[in-house]
Amino acid sequence: MTIKASTQQGVQSMFISPVNEQTMAAYYQQRLQQTHSVIERMALVALFELLFTQTPPEPEQPKSSTP
Prior knowledge:
By secondary structure, the protein is mainly α. It has helices at residues 3-16, 21-34, 38-52. The longest helix has 15 residues, at 38-52.
């Protein structure tokens, strides 16, 4: 199986099955370990951060009552 075919298969299986964060994390971690491309590594790290990093909610700003 080629890299392109395995990537397509991995992406397709992610959209067919319900979202499973552990499976997705394992997939992206495996891709990160297998790639030799700096650009692809940077993209995978950025995607990993977007998908799996939770940011704390922003505190609500008090509404000013000035007209």
